[in-house]
Amino acid sequence: MFSSRALRPVAVTFPAHGIFVLESHHTRGFRMPPVRHDFLKVIQPFAGGGWLVRKGLRVPLQPGDVVLVPAGERHHIEDSGTRPLSLYALCVAPAAPTPVTGGVFRAYRHFPSPPWGPEFRGLIRHLLHEQTLGRPGSDLMMLGLTWQALGHIARAASGRQPLRGERTHLPAQARVAAYAAELSRTFYHRQSVDAAAAALGLSRRHFTQLFRGITGESWLERLRLYRLAHARRLLRETGRSATSIGYECGFEDITTFYRTFKAAEGTSPLAWRNSGGVSARLRRRPHRQKTASSTPN
User: Fold this and answer.
1) Which helix (H) or strand (E) holds 79?
2) Residues 62, 197 share a domain
3) Quick one: pLDDT at residue 119?
4) Pseudo-torsion of CA 225, 227, 233, 237, nearest 10°?
5) Of 127, 37, 44, 41, which Cα lies nearest the Cα of 85?
């Protein structure tokens, strides 16, 4: 669920599996009255600024923070006057098959820009992706992703940091091939070619050479291919705003999304949607008219 230019909080409606993810882009004038939910909520802002107010305290909210609001905690959110918040929220019902009733999740917790924040944001985006498409097995995928997200919080609360997976024992070409295959499922994560190369234990030059040799494309070309394909699908199949779609597809700002989409399609995302999903280049292509050939009698 998403809300573009929200003036009030998004209503939470749980499916049978008990996991609900929302994306909300506040606008000036957003108001949230003090509320006490019967479910656990994890908030991660990704733009703007504001405060979470609880027990008379105003706790600053900044992009990248992760905040756990336990069930029964009275709170509300206030925006900065000039920079309204955009945020994700993972909501977990008490009956969901997750560990939310454990001691770690009974207390309010605030993690300012934790080192695992980008990975957490990737999990939230993956959850939103599964929720939006609603494919067979999405309920199980969402439960698994929620366990991973809550695992980050449990580890951080205990003082242990998540361990990063390593593939450095594999040959370089196998490492890059595995990464290229995964990119079709992780394109919406925040990532860079330098970070990808470093994670595989390779220099940037070696990584980019191997990646092009395996895929036939540069790293950026392949990444944009996946992001734009998903953007087209969301534009066709949902009524979500271009801003919301751009963020879900992995673009860090709406300007980059519009520029990249227009370079590929010759038009803006909303114009593409309104045209029924036809590229502007195809619409401008002249139609050749067949003329009957004349032969002398």
Assistant:
1) strand 74-79
2) no
3) 85
4) -170
5) 44
**pLDDT number for residue 206:** 94
Indicate the number of domains in the chain.
Answer: 2
Q: Angle at Cα 204 formed by Cα 231 and Cα 115, nearest 5°? A: 65
Residue identified by tokens 């029964």 is 72
Token couple for 77: 């959110």
Closest CA to 74 of 113, 36, 31: 36
Q: Between the CA atoms of 60, 119, 261 and 241, what dihedral angle is there, to the nearest 10 degrees?
A: -50
Distance separating alpha carbons of residues 37 and 70, to the nearest angstrom = 8
Phi, psi of 125 (to 5 degrees): -65, -40
The single-letter code of the amino acid at 44 is Q
CA–CA separation, 85 and 61 (whole Å): 9
Residue 17 clears pLDDT 60, i.e. is over it? yes
Taking residues 211-231, report their average pLDDT: 95
User: Does the structure show a pLDDT above 90 at 149?
Assistant: yes
Q: Is residue 195 part of a domain?
A: yes
Find the angle CA(144)-CA(147)-CA(151) to the nearest 5 degrees. 145
User: Edge-to-edge, what's the strand order for the sheet holding 2-6?
Assistant: 2-6, 19-26, 86-92, 40-47, 66-69, 109-111
CATH of the domain at 98: 2.60.120.280
CA dist 261 and 270 (Å) reads: 10
| pLDDT band at 52; cut points 50, 70, 90 | very high
DSSP 116: T
0.85 surpassed by pTM: no
pLDDT at 163: 42
Average pLDDT estimate for 81-86: 88
Statement: residue 278 has pLDDT above 60: yes
Q: What is the extent of the structural domain holding 259? A: 172-283
